[in-house]
Amino acid sequence: MKKLLLLVTLVAVLVPLFAVSAGAQEVKKALSDYVLVPGSAPVMAIPFKPSPDKSKPPSYCKPCLFYTGDLNSSSSEANGLFNAAGGALGSSGSAYVYGAFTVPKGKTWTITGLFINTLSNASAVDSTVTWDIRKGVTSGSGGTDVKSGKGSDTWKTTGRSAFGLTEYTNGVAVKPSVKLKGGSKGTTYWMNVLTSCLTSTCTEGSSGLFYESDQESQPGINQYGPNMPWDDSFFNSATFGYTWVLTNGSSGPCGGIGCDQFSMGAEGKQ
User: Left (φ > 0), alpha (ψ -120 to 50) or beta: where does 79 sit?
Assistant: First the structure.
């Protein structure tokens, strides 16, 4: 069933978005255009567990501050949300997924790298990637930009796949490093690493698909570090006409299937 839904969704992605790049006046598209699996209200298949997994961090997260965990392709809640500039969105199109993470109270984290996991049909992407860290994000508002920048993109396979797409880790060094404080109660921030498919380096060009993998287990599979916020990720895209909307729930861009948390992490010191 998931494979069939994926095929329908991919057609919806490619056809309307090519129309946008050709000069169509209507920009806002159906929610199913940029999620892997449209659906109804979510039913969590895996019960909540309050303690984080004690697994070792991924080899590419060193020194590792946190990793939310792997995509579980066997879960009924497995999904992905479009997060890229270019590719199937056209040369002027973009869509952003911002995942939430919390610096624990009394702690100061020095961020030296950010990464996300992405389901894609492209074996190579543009050599430069942008990153962004924000705070105070709410529905309808992007809050305050703490720091943003760009750097060399690392695009390496994770060994996982889903929905006919290969999963890649998309990582970037944060230079100069960014200090984030947890304060007296812990402070939540939001991060984005934006895949770019705008040059000939990107193997799929205008057919490029880039879905940030969700993470639907509590604790996450191979999670490292503290539990991160649940149901507090946001989608922002002028291309689709959506301004800072929560990704989860039946009214969210993922149509009620998954997108409660995304597979992502940060490197640094505390």
Answer: beta
DSSP secondary structure letters along 200-221: TTSTTGGG--EEEEB---SSPT
pLDDT digits over 174-222, tens only?
999 999 999 999 999 999 999 999 999 999 999 999 999 999 999 999 9
Q: Give the domain range for residue 37.
A: 2-269
DSSP class of residue 18 equals H
User: What is this structure's pTM?
Assistant: 0.84
- Distance between CA 136 and CA 82 in Å, rounded? 23
The span from the CA of 128 to the CA of 174, in Å, is 13
**Pick from 65, 61, 42: which is nearest to 189 by CA?**
65
Q: How many domains does the chain divide into?
A: 1
Q: What angle do CA 171, 237, 264 make, to 5 degrees?
A: 25
Q: Work out the number of other CB atoms within 10 angstroms of the CB of residue 54.
A: 8
Number of C-beta neighbours around residue 66 at 10 A:
26
Report in angstroms the alpha-carbon separations of 114 from 5, 60, 108, 130, 195. Answer: 31, 10, 16, 10, 12
Is the bond preceding residue 219 a cis peptide, omega within 30 degrees?
Answer: yes
Amino acid occupying residue 81: L
The rounded Cα 61 to chain-centroid distance in angstroms is 17
- Distance between CA atoms of residues 249 and 148, nearest Å: 29
